[in-house]
Amino acid sequence: MKPKYNYLINREISWLDFNARVMQEASDPNTPLIERLKFLGIFSNNRDEFFRVRVATLTRMTKFEKEKSAGENNPRRTLTEISKIVLEQERKFTQIYREIVEELKKYRIYIINESQLDTNQGLYVKKYFHENVRVHQFPLILDNARDLSSLKDKSIYLAVHLLKSTRKDSESFALIKVPTSSVPRFVLLPKENEEQYIILLDDVIRYCLEDIFGIFGYDTFNAYTIKFTRDAEMDIDNDVSKSFLEIMAESIKQRKKGVPVRFVYDENIPQHLLKKLTKKLKITDDDNLRSGGRYHNFKDFMSFPSSVGPPELTYTRLKPIRHPLVLPKFSILDAIASNDIMLHFPYHSFKYIIDLLREASIDPKVRSIKMTFYRAARDSNVMNALINAARNGKYVTVFLELQARFDEEANIMWAERLQEEGVRVIHSIPGLKVHCKLICIRRKENNENVYYANVSTGNFNESTATVYSDDSLLTANQKIAREVNDVFHLFEMKYSVPTFRHLVVSPFQTRKFFTQLIQKEISNALKGKEAWIQLKLNSLVDDQLVKKLYQASQAGVKIDIIARGICVLIPGVEGLSENINAISIVDRFLEHSRIYIFCNEGDPKYFISSADWMQRNLDHRIEVTCPIWDKKIQAELKNILEIQLADNTKARIISKDQPNQYQVTGEVQPRRAQFDTYDYFKQFEITDPEEIY
């Protein structure tokens, strides 16, 4: 076989292809107009994290690489390719934004700047500034500032050029943070004749610069937006005298002063001001310096006000579907004891999980509740339910992963809060992150311990559960539930690995397990038997499993892959992967579930998992893959995948040379997987509590 890089898409380029799919949603005229703006915000936020993590890592690698590094894995070559793609994406991004702004005008919605304000609007902006913004303004005079390392990335600043018209030698420069963490980025001005005007917070500050600097005699002001992105990788201190909580808190502080890996600025900024800034920030020509337009931090457009304009400018709310087996005023624990139940978010409500915890917290037969958290909501009712359980005398144990990237601070806050309330908090396993999503409830029934478990593909986070599509199994099958309890023993014992006969747990079994399942399909195909695999996941990166899938394709195994994000596998290559079909779906909801189905000689094996097929998930994290035995739930999972594979509206074909071409299925009728999935579950909804489907 030729060198492997000829048969793999570079993972960074594949990720950029994924983010391009997000931008396609922003450019799609069938996407509601305000939702298009929000997709631009998602694209921008994704790109920032890409630079903070992946570009930062590649930049580090260039300092240690050998000059003759081969192929597409050469970090310098990859960085060069990234720069080209990002530049082209920036051009498209700007074009799309301008088109959206023009389209908004048709609905009498106008995004204006400080120079376009009329007299009444100007008075309103001045009043708004003094009542809401002024208190957050703490300018830095550049000539006096000794250290700018405390400036925050993920924020924008105005670099202000100050002059006094009466003195030619009065030039000065200042920096002002645009306080979007405290004040909304978008300010709605009073309506005029049913016309809605919106001004960005940046321009509110520009309009009021005289109110800040006028007392010093300055009367001429020009402000230019700058933004920089820091290396977000954390160096973890190994000082054994410190608690892991202390180590993580200190590491987060270090991240805030990480090396800048990207610096963007208004292209109209004077060169001498730019040089002064880059010198103060210690940014060299080797860093990602890039000029841009007047506005940055488009991630704030994720919070663009939805209240403006008619309803058709936003998505119509999809009412969560009532699960037919979880009925109002009936015990959820009793329902789980009778049947395995699969919740499919956001089609079903996440409130079922909160209700389960609430019931367990007051049920006199429940003795203990154990739960894992990777990313918790800031105002989490799930956490509040656990606190209430502890107050009710239940033994509550929480594994809270403090190394969940960009959620470390929120998790530290919750760790401290839970400990104060008497919850046992576990927050480290040496060398491993805990990424599985588990709940285990122990109940005393007839003097025996009976376990109820929840195994989920997504975080126990009520905020993301409304926009992330995930699958969540509720079961009282003791073969599964007791092994979920064993996973918690692994956390508690740390060095003692239980024997798992039903659950598949990383880093101990997962790689070998899936390799064997693929090999079985290969063997069956070579014997002329039916052989196929269906995979739905976020990322397919692990080159060992990719090679195994190529081997399966060559043996005649039919493989369907639905990969939302990174996919380094190249489908459809003659003699290598012609039996592999791979698509990605980007739509209203973020596809987040992992579903794996293997033909198994006509008796398919079904699994849901917290693990993508990436080296980190297989080898460096605690992940759980759970078999699905219930025939009705198997049918649900199979139907979900078949619906997605039939999508001819939002499915893109994964390809190395022509990525993101929309899939055409040959059907005249439009098929849109997320809406079809909603309709699929809707047919099972019942209103009569006596009915069971």
How is this structure best described in words?
The strands form four sheets. Strands 14, 18, 19, 20, 21, 23, 24, 25, 26 and 27 form a ten-stranded mixed β-sheet that branches. By secondary structure, the protein is an alpha/beta fold. The chain has three domains: 4-313, polyphosphate kinase like (2-Layer Sandwich); 332-499, 2-Layer Sandwich (Endonuclease, Chain A), CATH 3.30.870.10; 506-682, Endonuclease, Chain A, CATH 3.30.870.10. It is globular. It is built from 18 helices and 27 strands.
Shape: globular
Which range best describes the helical content: under 10%, 10-25%, 25-40%, 40-55%, 55-70% or over 70%?
A: 25-40%
What's the architecture of the largest domain, going by CATH? 2-Layer Sandwich
Task: Classify the beta-strand content into a percent band.
Answer: 15-25%
Average predicted local confidence, pLDDT: 88
Contiguous low-pLDDT stretches (5 residues minimum) are 1-5, 234-249, 251-256
Rg from C-alpha positions? 27 Å
**CATH-defined superfamily of the largest domain:** Polyphosphate kinase middle domain
CATH class designation of the largest domain:
Alpha Beta
Query: What characterizes the major β-sheet?
Result: 10 strands, mixed
Structural class call reads alpha/beta
Measured distance between first and last alpha carbons: 52 Å
Number of strands: 27
- CATH topology of the largest domain: the name is polyphosphate kinase like
Give the number of domains.
3
**Distinct helical segment count:** 18
